[in-house]
């Protein structure tokens, strides 16, 4: 690799790593916050929260990598063009591949990483995440032993413990079960304890009553001792339900015919398989779009939309089309060719612009219209600010 190519690769890789880190941090944080209720709502430890946070990360990486590649390539080439470096490289007689080769090398590496994470890392992290969430939801012994608070185990099932006694027993036990339509069950006991009997979690309640309300009336049963099977409140015994996106590539290619999820939606497995075969192409798509937009040397005094904005606008349109096809193919198999057609067509169009020495830009009419709208908006904001300042000066009691 030439010195110039190493220079371009080093600059692009630096911006790519920085962009990937910050964008990944933002998206990762939003994904973690959506799952924080697993810890706060089920009494889990901080270690469980951090493990869930790390397991969420592989699902975010393939989505962020293409955008990081597009931003890195567009920003690097734009800066080099502003500093007249592209003009010098061209004037020295270097072929266009001198600029393209390091960009394509970075894109190929990003595609390989995206494919590996999407097919070999993410399925295992998703499966482990399902197990953790299922265990957290099934851990009723930890969940209910929180004094003075109601814990919703699932829809229609709530528990509350009044206090935890010094000898480890529980006091003031209250259980409300309205999961079965037309039947309301309310358990109350003065004291009780949790017991593990042959792998079955039991809540043994003493000195309490059971209220049963149906359409025929209300019945009240008083008891001295009553054992409530906690395992009936969760489906933890059967393990977590694994969806197609939680499965490995090998399983998607040869699913178990007896899999209840596969029996219910076999098209979902085929859709996920096609998604795995197309998602890894988008880093190359974004890199070619950035090359088509900012790969040529142009005068920075020339009026044009910033290449980074143009690159991201076109890339977002292409990515939206890919998401649309992937979503539709779950119910309509006819959209399968579109999943492959979108990235391949985008690569073909960008390669055409590069090969014919044309610059891919947004239509001038759209740019001018956007600039006009922005100018009008600025003028309206200034007018509103002037009116507000005049209104404040006219308020009574203000010093003249």
UniProtKB/TrEMBL annotation:
It is a multi-pass membrane protein. The keyword Phosphoprotein does not apply. The chain crosses the membrane at residues 12-32, 52-74, 103-121, 280-296, 308-326, 338-355. Its main location: membrane. It is found in: Cell membrane. It comes from the Bacteria. Keywords: Cell membrane, Membrane, Transmembrane, Transmembrane helix. NCBIfam families: LptF_YjgP. This is LPS export ABC transporter permease LptF. It comes from Neoaquamicrobium sediminum. The gene is lptF.
């Amino acid at each position: 690799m030439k010195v110039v190519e190493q220079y371009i690769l080093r600059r692009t890789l630096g911006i790519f790593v920085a962009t990937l880190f910050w964008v990944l941090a933002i998206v990762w944080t939003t994904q973690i916050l959506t799952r924080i209720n697993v810890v706060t709502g089920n009494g889990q430890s901080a270690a469980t929260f951090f493990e869930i946070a790390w397991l969420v990360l592989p699902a975010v990486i393939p989505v962020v990598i293409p955008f990081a590649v597009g931003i890195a390539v567009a920003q690097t080439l734009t800066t080099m063009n502003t500093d007249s470096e592209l003009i010098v490289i061209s004037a020295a007689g270097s072929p266009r591949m001198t600029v393209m080769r390091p960009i394509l090398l970075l894109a190929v590496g990003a595609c390989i990483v995206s494919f590996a994470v999407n097919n070999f890392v993410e399925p295992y992290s998703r499966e482990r995440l399902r197990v953790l969430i299922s265990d957290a939801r099934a851990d009723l012994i930890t969940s209910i032993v929180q004094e003075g608070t109601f814990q919703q185990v699932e829809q229609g099932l709530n528990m509350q413990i009044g206090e935890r006694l010094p000898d480890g027993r529980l006091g003031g036990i209250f259980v409300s079960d309205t999961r079965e339509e037309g039947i309301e069950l309310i358990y109350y006991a003065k004291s009780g304890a949790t017991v593990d009997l042959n792998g079955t979690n039991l809540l043994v309640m003493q000195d309490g009553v059971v209220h049963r309300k149906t359409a025929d009336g209300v019945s009240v049963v008083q008891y001295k001792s009553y054992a409530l099977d906690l395992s009936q409140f969760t489906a933890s015994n059967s393990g977590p339900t694994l969806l197609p996106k939680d499965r490995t590539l090998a399983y998607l290619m040869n699913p178990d015919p007896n899999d209840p999820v596969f029996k219910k939606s076999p098209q979902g497995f085929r859709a996920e398989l096609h998604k795995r075969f197309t998602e890894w192409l988008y880093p190359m798509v974004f890199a070619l779009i950035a090359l088509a937009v900012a790969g040529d040397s142009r005068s920075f005094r020339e009026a044009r939309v910033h290449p980074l904005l143009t690159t991201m606008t076109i890339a977002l349109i292409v990515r939206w089309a890919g998401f649309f096809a992937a979503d539709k193919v779950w119910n309509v198999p006819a959209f399968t060719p579109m999943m492959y057609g979108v990235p391949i067509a985008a690569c073909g169009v960008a390669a055409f612009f590069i090969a014919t020495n044309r610059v891919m830009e947004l239509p001038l009419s759209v740019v001018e219209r956007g600039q006009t709208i922005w100018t009008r908006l600025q003028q309206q904001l200034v007018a509103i600010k002037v009116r507000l300042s005049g209104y404040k000066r006219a308020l009574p009691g203000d010093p003249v």
